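Researcher: We're teaching a course module on how sequence relates to structure. For the next exercise, students receive a sequence and then see the predicted structure as tokens, so they can try to spot secondary structure elements on their own. Here is the exercise chain.
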Amino acid sequence: MDPRHLYRSVSTVSTATVWTQRTLSGMGLTTSNNTLANTEDDVENIDLQPLSTPEQELDVNPTDVPQNTATQVQEGEDNRGSGPDNRDTISNSKSSTAKSMRLTNIWWLEIVSCLLVVAMIAALVGTIQPYQGQPLSRWPYSLPINTIVSFYSEVMRAAMVLVLGDCLSQLKWSWFTSPRPLHHLEHYDNASRGPWGSLGFLWAIRLRAILPSIGGIMMVLSVLLVPFTQQIVQFYSCTILDATLSASIPKTNFASAGYNGAAVSIVPSAQAVINSGVYDSEIKQVPFTCPTGNCTFARVYRSMGWCSHCEDVSDQIEVRSSKEGAVNFTLPSNLSAIPGSSTFVMGASDYTIQAILGWNKNGTAHPLSDTPWGKRGFGAAECSVDPCVRSYTGIVKDGTFTETLISTSVTWDWKDYEDDSIDVACLNASEIQALQNAGCNFDPKKTVWVECDGARATAMPRSECIYQAVGPQVSHLFGYLSTMFNGELGYAPGALYGPAILQTIFQGGNVTYSTIDDMFNRIAQSLTVWAREQGTRNVTGQVYMSNTCVNARWGWLACPLSLMLGTVIFLAWTMDHTRRNEGSRQDYKSSPLALLFHRLGEVGNEGPISDIASSGELQKKAKAMRVVFQGTDDVWRFTEVEQLDTSGAKKPRV
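Model: And here is the predicted structure for the students to work with:
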């Protein structure tokens, strides 16, 4: 029977019958239209039915019922009275209930979720920033940094999807306050579940509503959150300072050339390094100690050593021709070269080593080589090796040491038996003052080297600040060089004869000033390395270890920040929209119970309805009900089969 036909007249209802109806009403039940009895004897035969809703109220005529009985019925029914006026009262009650609900009660979980998104971004920045540019070995946590970043991003995405899903679910109630296709209900539900459902939702509503469309777009874009967040952290190979280790390279404050006071010449080991400067094409490097293969000696350091100086003296050559047409090339020192028999000649003169090439006058016939001297046909160079202070910086990279010569300072007169120079930059204030008090007048801001032999006994500073050269070392070195570079080399096309060392320097006719200058530079460098190895001092450097460092690419944070800001704005906009829209003021969101308690039907034919505006109340009421999904007459529906009373005991439905 149609529930709308359950309205009844109580004009013939006895007082007992009215009392029975009140009792059943309190139990949530009512009587059927064909079983209502007129006497107390008929009470046992009453067919119990669920209590009707306001739209199914009994049509009671108060004029047909005694005044006191009508009053009792009205009191027992409370707000479940009859007539349109009562329905208006219930409608006003619904509106009042919805308006009275506070936004914080409805949206507290979403607000907390937004705060969680903000907290995760702050935690992400706070976790990565202190270790930007730092090695992974300094990472203090047992979990890898990628794992923590993934955790942050997953929590952010989960909280963001919760906010977006609940907002979209709540917006569907206001969407249907106007006539809409029923399948939009499913699209809204799918959109609240994730990005794929949001794509179908956006296609279904065709962007006809700005606010839900923004929510759907945000839901789709949420898939970018995790990959973009993980792009923030980048790893790269780096080297870090290891303060527990140290690097060192030798240095010396004394210019030794291998003369020990007893040998006629310099010691054989010094001779060997000088010879290597002639025959080896590479510059000899000082030995080093670097435990990791990556070290730096960034500060400029000084060492006593040897420096070469060469000069092109080709303009001093005098070309002489004999009556027979022979050509002779002669230097002021009388060192001469004659084409053919003595084409290339080397010798010593006034503590310098000279080399002269003589092939033909002005290069008129048969150029010797495609070099300045070879094309011209003659040339000469003059070189010397003297004690000096050499300033360096050094670096060891991947096990290879590179030492860069910054400058050289030659301040010694090698003719003196002993000459000391003081490095002003090495002195402290008290040492500078002591030297000035002892008669050494110099400006420490402008002076680099100071010679204060007269103050030696009273004010000489620490030995590491004093650089020393002695005459015998220089003179014995020159003696060896003058013996080594002495001789004549004969040359003719296809024929070469003379000392092996001169053949090496001659280079098949490619000798020129630059090749001789490079050779003497290698000799000075090799002898300096040898002298430093004989010393007892070291330069210390910093040791670096190869590691993997963390780099933060903050540009990738733009995506999470934009999504966070969009989520906050979308939530605030949704809260304001639902507050102003009467159809979505209730706290239903995605609850399926709301659909069960609000049946689909035409106006006046909805069946039982509910005025509960809170999803919590819906859940509370649902906990007190037991239903079954069953088919009756080929129609499947949820049917209530039993109800729980306030004590928790099951009460069967009749």
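Model: If you want an answer key for the exercise: Confidence is low (pLDDT under 50) at residues 1-100. Residues 247-312+352-362+364-409+471-544 form one domain.
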